[in-house]
Specification:
The protein is α/β, with parallel strands linked by helices. The protein has 10 helices and 8 strands. The N and C termini lie far apart (55 Å). Bound molecules: nicotinamide-adenine-dinucleotide.
Length: 260
């Protein structure tokens, strides 16, 4: 049976790096983005993850081709790329939608890696009880109407969306485990991609974070793709239901700063 790997956000940055890294691990690769990417050896698919019909069609294409082996869901937008509602819609609702669409395809060996962020390590309590209660409900019809007005800015919206991605990954991991599937969210720190550079150039706080970074550098997309490749491999067959933080000890520095 033909094994199929799907990479969203494949036109750019870490999605593209993951696609290159996963070559040869599956029989067929689907490169997914807002516009169908033209990449040798991969079938380009246009799919906006906000579009339920397009996401279902993507899952249908996997079913036509063979068995679902790998889903790397790197599509996402950052604080500079949209308003709070759009950020939560793409990053969190989109992740719930794509995990739901792929769930009926899960067979032993299927793996999904939705992209969260080190920003998803924000303590949710900082955002208040109502947003905390809502974060696990991205499928409810009025979720965006209720959550978006409570988010103070696009940076918080981004963090909130990525907290939600980690939660969706953990919940899906529990559902998929009896089917033989695994789900592991991946949280990059600051990475040298078009998105990472956009934030660095426009948000002074990102420059301050880089100046204070324990490794004094951005991560490379290839360094993320290498970890994703391990997560997707059979070597990681008992790894599921967690977030893998790949940030060069940046969060560790913040977490331990006040602990002597
Ligand atoms: N770059 C960083 O520093 C950083 C840090 C932490 C987390 N992340 C996360 O990693 C993932 C990849 O980021 P990147 O830096 O490679 O970004 P990028 O902007 O280089 O690539 C993201 C891709 O997602 C696609 N995309 C955006 N909205 C989409 C939608 N609605 N439907 C389908 N595709 C869509 C874009 O067209 C783009 O090709 C994102 O989820 C991002 O939030 C990035």
């Amino acid at each position: 049976m033909t094994t199929v790997g799907v990479i969203t956000g494949a036109a750019s940055g870490m999605g593209r790096a993951c696609l290159e890294r996963l070559r040869g691990t599956v029989d067929a690769l689907l490169a997914v983005d807002l516009e169908a990417p033209a990449i040798d050896g991969a079938e380009g698919v246009a799919c906006d993850v906000r579009d339920a019909v397009a996401v279902e069609a993507l899952a249908g294409r996997v079913r036509e081709l063979g068995t679902f082996r790998t889903l790397v869901h790197a599509a996402g937008i950052s604080p500079m790329m949209g308003d709070a509602r759009t950020i939560v819609d793409v990053n969190l609702v989109g992740t719930a939608r794509i995990l739901d669409a792929f769930e009926p395809l899960v067979v032993p060996g299927s793996v999904a890696v939705p992209f969260s962020s080190s920003a998803g390590y924000l303590p949710l309590a900082l955002l208040g009880d109502e947003l905390t209660g809502l974060v696990g409900q991205p499928r409810t019809a009025d979720f965006l109407d209720r959550a978006a007005p409570l988010l103070p800015d696009t940076g918080m919206a981004y963090s909130y969306s990525k907290v939600g991605v980690q939660l969706e990954a953990r919940k899906a991991a529990v559902r998929w485990a009896p089917l033989g599937g695994r789900v592991v969210s991946l949280s990059p720190g600051s990475i040298d991609t078009p998105m990472g550079r956009l934030e660095l150039e426009n948000q002074p706080v990102m420059r301050d974070m880089l100046d204070a970074h324990p490794m004094a550098r951005l991560g490379g997309a290839g360094e993320i793709a290498a970890v994703v490749a391990f997560i997707c491999s059979d070597d990681a067959s008992f790894l599921s239901g967690i977030d893998v933080l790949v940030d060069g000890a940046e969060q560790a520095k913040q977490m331990t700063a006040t602990q002597g």
